[in-house]
């Protein structure tokens, strides 16, 4: 008989399990199939309001630097082909994604991308910006690469 | 993008959302869907190498998930054998317990019971009773394969296990054969 014993501490490894991107993709597929588009949006809003409540509080306190730091940390870890830009305007943040590490990994696994997968970014951003001075914009989505342009800008003053 | 490092909160909150929208049975239906369509890598590993495929699959995922664990594999040349797992600190439940701005799904750990046994049993791998302490994010379990798989699967698993034995020291794995 052959015996193997592996003993690992959490600190032995970096926490980065990219197959979880596909697990989220499957969740979106399930919601889409069983609850429709409104179900997908409702769940993503529910997730964002709960999980990102601390990020949102930080956004309210420090402005867009909170989101900039959050996304720099994530893309530094995950890779992809992404540029995060600030202008002189403190109320503008642009994230240009040419290759999204999540979509890249899902494609590598050969799994079809769930319908409206991009809402995991756009709806989440819109939800984070609810009741804040900023709004989120999302454009140029390419489901093959996950490319998109994500902007956060100050809401126009009410007339 | 929701980072893969943020998936576990999204998973737990999905269970909460499904239960609030429908009921607990809907959460179980979702777990069954994942069991049927979300474990293709594990299934491919078992189809190719039998019980040793399980070792390779969890070795990969648990290291990527930075789990705190001990895992043992005891394999015979005919493909029969058993695995023992002691999760000292589950990377999923442990992470959820560390958040204090939302509550983990009340039956979060149950998903493992629904996800894995049906797939493993399909290939003759029997899951033993699981000792769980969710509040400490620990669990212990075992998996046995008592009937040999097809000879080519047993051979592929045994060859891969011998290779693991050769590389064990470099990978920090204790290994021996008797």
Mind explaining what this structure looks like?
The complex is a heterodimer of chains A (159) and B (178). Chain A is of the alpha+beta class and 159 residues long. Chain A has one domain (18-154): Trafficking protein particle complex subunit 3 (Muramoyl-pentapeptide Carboxypeptidase, domain 2, 2-Layer Sandwich), CATH 3.30.1380. Chain A is built from five helices and five strands. A four-stranded antiparallel β-sheet of chain A has the order 2-3-5-4, with helices on one face. In chain A, helix 2 (53-62) packs across helix 3. Chain B is α+β, with helices and mostly antiparallel strands. Chain B contains seven helices and six strands; from the N terminus they run ααααββααβββαβ. The longest helix of chain B is centred in the last third of the chain and has 17 residues, at 151-167. The model of chain B has no long low-confidence stretch (mean pLDDT 97). The chains are: A alpha+beta (159), B alpha+beta (178). Chains A and B meet through strand 1, helix 1, helix 3, helix 4 and helix 5 of A and helix 1, helix 2, helix 4, strand 1 and helix 7 of B. Strand 1 (2-8) of chain A pairs antiparallel with strand 1 of chain B.
């Amino acid at each position: 008989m052959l015996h193997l014993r592996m003993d690992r501490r959490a600190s032995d490894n970096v926490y980065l399990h990219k197959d979880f991107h596909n697990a989220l993709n499957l969740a979106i597929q399930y919601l889409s199939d069983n609850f429709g588009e409104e179900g997908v949006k409702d769940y993503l809003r529910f997730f964002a309001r709960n999980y990102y409540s601390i990020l949102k509080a930080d956004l309210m306190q420090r402005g867009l630097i909170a989101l900039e730091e959050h996304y720099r940390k994530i893309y530094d870890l995950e890779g992809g082909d992404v540029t995060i830009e600030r202008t002189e305007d403190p109320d503008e943040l642009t994230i240009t994604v040419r290759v999204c590490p999540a979509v890249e990994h899902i494609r590598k696994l050969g799994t079809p991308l769930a319908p409206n997968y991009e809402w995991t970014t756009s709806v989440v951003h819109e939800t984070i910006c609810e009741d804040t001075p900023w709004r989120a914009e999302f454009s140029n989505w390419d489901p093959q690469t996950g490319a998109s342009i994500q902007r956060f800008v100050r809401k126009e003053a009410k007339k | 993008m929701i980072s893969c490092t943020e998936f576990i909160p999204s998973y737990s909150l999905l269970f909460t959302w499904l239960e609030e929208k429908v009921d607990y049975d809907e959460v179980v239906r979702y777990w069954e869907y994942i069991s049927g369509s979300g474990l293709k890598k594990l299934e491919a590993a078992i189809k190719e190498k039998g019980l040793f495929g399980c070792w390779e699959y969890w070795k990969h995922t648990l290291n990527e998930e930075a789990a705190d664990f001990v895992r043992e594999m005891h394999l015979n040349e005919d493909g029969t054998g058993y695995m023992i797992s002691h999760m000292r600190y589950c990377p999923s439940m442990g992470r959820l317990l560390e958040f204090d701005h939302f509550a983990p799904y009340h039956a979060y750990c149950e998903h493992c019971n629904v996800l894995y046994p049906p797939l493993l049993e399909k290939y003759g791998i029997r899951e033993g009773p699981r000792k769980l302490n969710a509040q400490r994010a620990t669990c212990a379990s075992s998996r046995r394969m008592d009937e040999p798989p097809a000879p080519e699967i047993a051979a592929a698993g045994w060859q891969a296990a011998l290779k693991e034995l050769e590389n064990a020291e470099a990978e920090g794995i204790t290994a021996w054969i008797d």
